Automatic annotation (TrEMBL):
FAD binds at T138, G177. Residues 278-439 form the Acyl-CoA oxidase C-alpha1 domain. Pfam families: ACOX, ACOX_C_alpha1, Acyl-CoA_ox_N. This is Acyl-coenzyme A oxidase. The keyword Ligase does not apply. GO terms for cellular component: peroxisome.
Length: 664
């Protein structure tokens, strides 16, 4: 039976069609229906319940994850789910596991870097989970610097095999998810050596464990790297350590789409660029951007619903106290995060389109937009994961003391999410890649090369260096062209200033190292411009549903104007806007917060998260927070007994001791 809806009064204030917004959020009616069906399937299956997992010890936790992964696979087969449905189902199971790496990196690496024959051999095995794969790139000594990896793959022409070897302690593979205890195979990145010559780092398919008894192949040492940040959280994953002692694999297990090694050990380059070896990382970074909006929306949904339930101060004549969501300070912290969730959703959609476009072009041997795809995926991965990790922590604070309880769902979400700032490329290292791309683009402007895609605005650099922001009233900040120009001018001016500073150095690499902190700021400005411009593009689409476009406009301007406020130093110091215009932007922001306020609950309802997926007492759909929080407390193992274990050993003697001392 459905209980009372404590948030009904909030839902009654809604000024737009929530069902239509659910479809906008999901991306299409098809995506909405499919994800909704999978979310309900998982939520209604007791085998997938999540209660109490934070209280499990590592071994129990890990075994529990194995059980869920096996059950998910069973359901996928029984229900004949499509690949898309299966992906949603795994997502709603909501527990990091070896399957993330198998489907998210092992399979894509074979698809992206394997030859047709390799794909025909390995993909069917992987699709049926007759083998389980991980992605073993990072080592104890090197992660960011991929060219610094030490594992070797030496071709032996006598046996037509590669010998995979870990020559040093620091060459031990370290971190790969699913490797520690589960994977039977891995894509191992190693330095290719043929005829005594080095040919850079390449991927190799290596069997790690027996398919009969799961024992490591002789010569392989393998295990888990140990507990990670937070209770439960990412400890469901067996991140692993792996060393090779002269392991032999057939020559045809090197992924050879980029470079082929012949029977004689000769290296033959194909027509695809060497950077395609990094293609799996581009793919995964793109999915991480899409995931950022999902994680951010979870935190924002919890904080928004709870902010509407929670009341503090302001009671007059014994009436109700103020809902904390009505405090302007709460709104100015919460609503930009709500706006960011939508902004990241749309930029994630666009990035998926870009990735699909690049993939099609690559197949037609057009590699021209690979550098831009790399810069966009790297930069947006960095921007969205940093913002999301910070936002989850801000949402915890927005929930006051109760946000710190595991029952809020926020500590676990933070612990699971925060490594996204590191894995798949440290966020600063990735911004430096964007900076290289931007500086290269600026340096080519003089030679007449016209920038395209996300850097097209740099082609108008002369105008952008001179333009004056056309804002006289707060309402002027609601013009897309005004907002876009301010962001373009800020980014262009920062890029040009950095490029001028770089040109003062004799050696560009020295300059790049010296100015790297400034360069990273220019990358952030460029990436924020991409997010703002893709949100504005979204508003130009024909979006059905009463009031939906209006809400999205409000969110778009909140996203942009809040950034303007936060990075005011950039906008003012580059002369893009005046202090007076900045003050008008703030006036407009406050007005937008008031307009969003009555719609806030409906805007988080549009995420369509089940209570199972949210996993938060504070974020419950029905807002029935206090009784459930009270109930939850009694489930803690400490409350199994009234008098705790240890009383007789430690508390009682202490009390008696004090009594004796008092008598003395
Ligand atoms: C409450 C409970 C909730 C539960 C939720 C559960 C939900 C599940 C959550 C889990 C979600 C997802 C699971 C994810 C699992 C984690 C997976 C993590 C996997 C990994 O981390 S794999 C390892 C990734 N490693 C890295 O990313 C390393 C980073 N380093 C690099 O990328 C590069 O080496 C480099 C930094 C780019 C180095 O560059 P450098 O210039 O030194 O290198 P090169 O000389 O090799 O390159 C020069 C040239 O190439 C261009 N280039 C570089 N990279 C690329 C690329 N990827 N694509 C295209 N081009 C590239 C570069 O720009 C240069 O070009 P230029 O010569 O200047 O034109
Ligand atoms: C939870 C988790 C899961 C992972 N899963 C996998 C996996 O499945 N497979 C896999 O292969 N790897 C995996 N990794 C490894 C991950 O990809 C690396 O940790 C990541 O790429 C960062 O590299 P690093 O650890 O070498 O960091 P480092 O490069 O050592 O970073 C340390 C510090 O140095 C700074 N720094 C480094 N280089 C530069 C530079 N050039 N300029 C300025 N500053 C710099 C960084 O910004 C950072 O502050 C995982 C990591 C984690 C945390």
């Amino acid at each position: 039976m459905k209980g009372v809806d404590h948030l009904a009064h909030e839902r009654n204030k809604t000024e737009f069609d929530v069902d239509a917004m659910k479809i906008v959020w999901a991306g299409s009616r098809h995506a909405f229906e499919l994800s909704d069906r999978m979310a309900r399937l998982v939520a209604s299956d007791p085998a997938f319940q999540k209660d109490g997992r934070i209280r499990l010890g590592r071994k129990e936790l890990f075994k529990n994850t194995l059980r869920k992964a096996a059950h998910a696979w069973k359901r996928i087969l029984e229900l004949h789910l499509t690949e898309e449905e299966a992906g949603w189902l795994r997502n709603f199971v909501d527990e990091p596991s070896f399957t993330d790496l198998h489907w998210g990196m092992f399979v894509p690496a074979i698809k992206g870097q394997g030859t047709d024959e390799q794909q025909q051999k390995w993909l069917p095995l992987a699709y049926k989970m007759q083998i389980i794969g991980s992605y073993a790139q990072t080592e104890l000594g090197h992660g960011s610097n991929v060219q610094g990896l030490e594992t070797t793959a030496t071709f032996d022409p006598e046996t037509d095999e590669f010998v995979i070897h870990s020559p040093t302690l620091t060459s031990s593979k370290w971190w790969p998810g699913g490797l520690g205890k589960v994977s039977t195979h891995a894509i191992v990145y190693a330095r290719l050596i043929t005829n005594g010559q080095e040919h850079g780092v390449h991927g190799f398919i290596v069997q790690l464990r027996s398919l009969d008894d799961h024992m490591p192949i002789p010569g392989i040492t393998i295990g888990d790297i140990g507990m990670k940040f937070g209770n439960g959280a990412y400890n469901t994953m067996d991140n692993g350590v792996l060393t090779f002692d002269h392991i032999r694999i057939p020559r045809n297990q090197m992924l050879m789409r980029v470079l082929q090694v012949t029977r004689e050990g000769k290296c033959v380059k194909s027509n695809v660029p060497r950077q395609l070896i990094y293609g799996t990382m581009v793919f995964v970074r793109q999915t991480i951007v899409a995931d950022a909006s999902t994680a951010l929306a979870r935190a924002v949904c919890i904080a928004t619903r709870y902010s509407a339930v929670r009341r503090q101060f302001g009671s007059q004549d014994g009436g109700m106290e103020t809902q904390v969501i009505d405090y302007k300070t709460q709104q100015s912290r919460l609503f930009p995060l709500l706006a960011s969730a939508y902004a990241f959703r749309f930029v994630g959609e666009w990035l998926k389109w870009l990735y699909t476009d690049v993939t099609q072009r690559l197949q037609a041997n057009d590699f021209s937009i690979l550098p831009e795809a790399h810069a966009c995926t790297a930069g947006l991965k960095s921007l969205t994961t940093t913002a999301t990790a910070d936002a989850i922590e801000e949402c915890r604070k927005l929930c006051g003391g109760h946000g710190y309880l595991c029952a809020s769902g926020l500590p676990e979400l933070f612990a699971v999410y925060v490594p996204a700032c590191t894995y798949e490329g440290d966020n600063v290292v990735l911004l430096l890649q964007v900076a290289r791309f931007l500086m290269k683009t600026v340096s080519q402007l003089g030679s007449g090369k016209k920038p395209v895609g996300t850097t097209a605005y740099l082609g108008r650099v002369q105008d952008l260096l001179q333009c004056c922001c056309d804002v006289q009233t707060a309402e002027d900040w609601l013009k897309p062209s005004v907002v876009l120009e301010a962001f373009e001018a800020r980014s262009a001016r920062m890029c040009v200033a950095r490029a001028q500073n770089l040109s003062k150095f004799e050696n560009p690499e020295d300059g790049f190292a010296e100015l790297s902190a400034d360069l990273v700021e220019a990358s952030v400005a460029h990436c924020q411009l991409i997010v703002v411009s893709k949100f504005i593009d979204k508003l130009q689409q024909d979006i059905p549903g009463k009031g939906v476009n209006r809400q999205l406009q409000n969110l778009c301007y909140i996203y942009a104007l809040n950034l303007l406020h936060k990075y005011l130093g950039d906008f003012l110091s580059t002369g893009c806007i005046t202090p007076k215009q900045a003050s008008l932007a703030n006036d407009q922001l406050r007005s937008l917060y008031s307009q969003i306020r009555p719609n806030a609950i409906a805007l988080v309802d549009a995420f369509n998260y089940t209570d199972h997926y949210l996993g938060s007492v504070l974020g419950r759909y029905d807002g029935n927070v206090y009784p459930k929080l009270y109930e939850e407390a009694w489930k803690d193992p400490l409350n199994d007994s009234v008098v705790p274990d240890g009383y007789h050993e430690y508390i009682h003697p202490m009390l008696k001791q004090q009594l004796r001392n008092a008598r003395l």
